[in-house]
Design goal:
Oligomer: single chain
Mean pLDDT: 83
Radius of gyration: 16 Å
Number of helices: 3
Structural class: mainly alpha
Largest sheet: 2 strands, antiparallel
Shape: flat
Low-confidence stretches: none
Distance between the termini: 40 Å
Order of helices and strands: HHEEH
Length: 98
């Protein structure tokens, strides 16, 4: 019974985050003039898919806020995600070796 309540809470939290992102993501894109933070290309012209990137990932406690988010084209976002994942793996391995 407890597991079902936890899942319901998780779903409600996810719905709130999706609703919040629907409001904040356009503000982030406007603030960044629809340009990728790294390569500077206009994300509307370059690709059909542009992303909002969390500087501190949500999975590590980052928030959906103007201060923690930037506009990236899909190419730069994918590159950055690989760097993040590699860095986190290295840190976790180092912590495990100590």
């Amino acid at each position: 019974m407890v597991k079902r309540k936890l899942k319901l809470i998780d779903i409600e939290d996810k719905i709130k985050r999706i609703e919040h992102r629907a409001v904040i993501n356009p503000k982030i894109r406007e603030r960044d003039n629809y340009n990728c933070y790294f390569c500077g290309r206009n994300v509307i012209e370059v690709c059909s898919s542009n992303t909002i990137h969390h500087i501190v990932p949500v999975r590590y406690g980052g928030e959906d806020s103007l201060e923690n988010c930037i506009t990236l084209c899909l190419n730069c976002h994918n590159k950055l995600e690989r760097i993040y994942d590699s860095l986190i793996e290295s840190l976790l391995k180092k912590i495990g070796d100590e």
